[in-house]
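Minutes, methods subgroup
Present: GH (chair), OT, SY

1. OT presented the first of two proteins processed in the latest run. Sequence and structure tokens recorded below as shown on screen.
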Amino acid sequence: MTQKAFPKSKKTFKTSELYQLNVPFRTIDLSDPDTPSIDIYDTSGPYGDDTQSNTPTKGITKIREHWVAQRNVTTLTQRSIPYQIPFKLEKNGLIFHNKPIPRKGNGPITQLAYAKKGIITEEMDYVAKRENVAPQVVLDHIK
């Protein structure tokens, strides 16, 4: 896992239309004088960003946490299927300590359920910016 940015590129952010979310892009410098650079969607998360310090076992920033908390959902204190006690997820010798957070709503809390109600969520707005389309296009595609 590298912390260094990719050569001849820098991480940038574009603002989404509805919720003003910061969506990561990578601006890549080109040698073409007619097109000096191109922006592509950046999937590296905090890695590849020289301004971030990261600890792999802590996981990445939970950008959706605030979005979901704003919705009519309840965070459960217990799961119907218990975690291994004490909780740990181990892969390639690394132990990850973040547990998935169980949530419950008054009905389905999936993106499909929100789309069927005509609700454009933060996730849909984020994807719309990433795909360079209007949020309504994402909503219509999910429905």
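2. SY then presented the second protein from the same run.
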Amino acid sequence: MIGCHAQRAVRSTIAQDMLELVHEQTDLHEQQQSQQQQLREAATQGGLLHVNMPDPLLQWLCCRYAREGKGTLLPGVARCKHTQIACPHAMPTTNRTDLTDQPLADALRLAQLLLGMHGTAARSEAEILLAAVLGCARSHLYAHSNQTLTATQAVKFQTLIKRRAAGEPVAYLIGMREFWSLELTVSEGTLIPRPDTELLVERALLCIPKDAALRIADLGTGSGAIALAIKHERPRCHVIATDISEAALSVARGNASRLGLDTVDFRCGDWCTALAGTRCAVIISNPPYIPDGDPHLAAGDVRFEPRTALTPGPEGLEAIRLIAAQAHVHLYSGGWLLLEHGYDQSAAVMGLLQDQGYREITAHTDLSGHNRVVQGRK
């Protein structure tokens, strides 16, 4: 336990560091080495301090201490002004980098810092990873917050946190992603299903009467997310799911079998080539649409996803243009084509459908207010 004098020294050092960070935006590593050393010495005397940090730079400082194993500062719950630092009583701990024998609650708090993220996002990701290690529901982490980690569990959890901090997507780390309330297996050979794509499913379902037995095609199915969501909601329909990747189709078939939706017709082929001799009432696709060279391809989770599922070429519209032309041949008269696209591509996609003779062309916005889906009728 850190004594009162040590706590006061830490409070003073932190407050001074934080004030200079906020007002001068200086580099702590170069400008505040003396004060950092005081903080390290005080924080490693045997306590776990809780500090309120409303500024990203303050979070960065505490994350660095945690990663160095020289003391851990955990964000408090109450909000404070930038010029105020709240340091409640210290909590004893034996080793702030080894999670063995640590209660779940403390392991989660430390994981949040090691992830270098803010608020609910860091907490949520830490909970997902810890629940995967323990093989339990996230609710278990709250109901049994005093449960301690075994050495094996601690190593697994720390490994996952380290990989996530390096940028690997949570979905790949645990091998699962929820889409349309369906738990889907994903792999590094499949695109990770995203919430925005649920808009594509919503719009497609509006084109398919509930009791209809229509033929529906999902082009570039990946993990099978769209096709399986449609089959789940419209069980009488004959759903075809195509992909050029046999590895992706293997994942999709596994998902279909596990979810009891194994009547989906999986076919290997590039876009509509797998539909040879087949006509459909609705064709759906979430094709690659990010222009090659777009800086987003080198940032965040997408760095780890298959590039062919993200970008079709320098323009970003190459796959959409091809699908719009091919799908027209494979749709019944009055059939619908629905396409997901980039946030700034709506007008271009609508123009492509118009050029191919589609009618009743409309655009639809995602949860962020961006146009994300265009649909047109043959």
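Chair's summary of item 2: Confidence is low (pLDDT under 50) at residues 1-61, 63-96.
Next meeting: continue with the remaining queue.
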